[in-house]
Amino acid sequence: MGSMGIRDLERIQFVTRHFHSLQGLRHLVPLGLITLSAVACFMEAPLLFLGAVPLLGAVLLMLGARRYYGEAFGLAEPRQAPRPATEPLCTSIYSSTGPAPWLASSPSPISTLQRTLLLIGLAPFLYLLFQNLIAPPWVTFPSGTTVPRPFEWYGSALGAFPALLLYALSGPLFFSIWWLQGRRLSQSYHLGLGALLLGFSAFGTAPLWIAPLLCGSAMILAGLLDHWQLVRALGPAPQEAEEDR
Amino acid sequence: MSITPFEQLANLDRTVHDPARLAILTALSACEQADFLFLQRITGLTKGNLSSHLSKLEEAGLVEIEKRFVEKKTQTLARLSDSGRGTLESYWQEMDALRKSAAGWQPRNAAMVPT
Q1: What is the ipTM of this complex?
Q2: How far apart are CA A232 and CA A15, in angstroms?
Q3: Which of A91, A111, A242 to mutate to test the interface with B (most CBs of B within 10 A)?
């Protein structure tokens, strides 16, 4: 290790503090795949099963990514309670510009809040899922009538509600992630995606499948960018960490 | 006679002021505990260097090391001790004071300063 600058210390503190939330393949990408699977709800019966593909991918990612991150990057357990007195103070002899913002701030642990936000984000997808479980379009009653699909059932006005809800939850979800991750410039794609999704909601919800497609794609993109940032920040894999982690 | 900022700098705790050890302490101050692999990835240190610095920090009582077996592999976990948190806090306070005094420092005898 050569010289240690304030930027290096900032990178170290940021990545360590947000190690879990930066694991995009564990959180945002599976969430995006689940959202994409909701697109299938708007398809005809033969294509309906296509929704199972991203759903299966999400389950596999959620199961495998945890192990992957543990083996590739190790373990850093988030702090359980804030201890402001032990945070580094506002100082920098490495920077001529004076105190660095990262040292001045003392963000509290965010894992619980982020989990809550992710659960809120899951709400519209669960809503869509249950709609189809309660009234699956492929079920034919003995009388010969097919149960109408949920959005036909409720009519177009009410059918737009899940799409609007999806936009309304996804936008703030991205804003919240950006805010909780320290409002960093390098994380501003969350801000951009959040604004983009809220902007799209202004154009209406027709056709209905656009909302899960856009929101799911945005989540996958943000998750991949988070993952890329983590990989870039943690540097190349050591070649000698086999026997001792 | 008051000491100059440069003398203050020389009096800093070298255990903490070393760049590699400062990187390790910064990482540990941002989490509850971290394993050897994570510290190696985040600091960019080689295994030998990291091990040596962790030993020094442990000897100084700044870091607590725990070894455990996970899937038949040794996992080394490091955490900042309470004394380590206090030392790190004092270090940053000293650095802050040093920066302020260095910013306002004037040589006592200007004629002695080489041009």
Answers
A1: 0.81
A2: 11
A3: A91
Instruction: Give pLDDT tens digits for B63-107.
Output: 999 999 887 888 999 999 999 999 999 888 888 888 887 777 676
How many other C-beta atoms can be found within 10 angstroms of the C-beta atom of residue A218? 25
Nearest CA in chain A to B68: A245
CATH number of the domain to which B9 belongs = 1.10.10.10
Asked whether residue A228 is assigned to any structural domain, the reply reads: yes
Per-residue pLDDT of A93-146, as tens digits, reads: 444 444 444 443 444 445 565 666 666 666 656 656 655 555 555 455 555 555
Q: Which of B20, B26, B96 sits opposite A1 (nearest CB)?
A: B20
Give the distance from residue A242's alpha carbon to the nearest chain B alpha carbon, in angstroms.
Answer: 9
Q: Using a CB-CB distance cutoff of 8 angstroms, which residues of chain B are in contact with residue A90?
A: 96
Does some domain include residue B110?
A: no
Burial B52-75 (b: 16+ CB within 10 A, else e): ebbebbeebebbbeeeeeeeeeeb
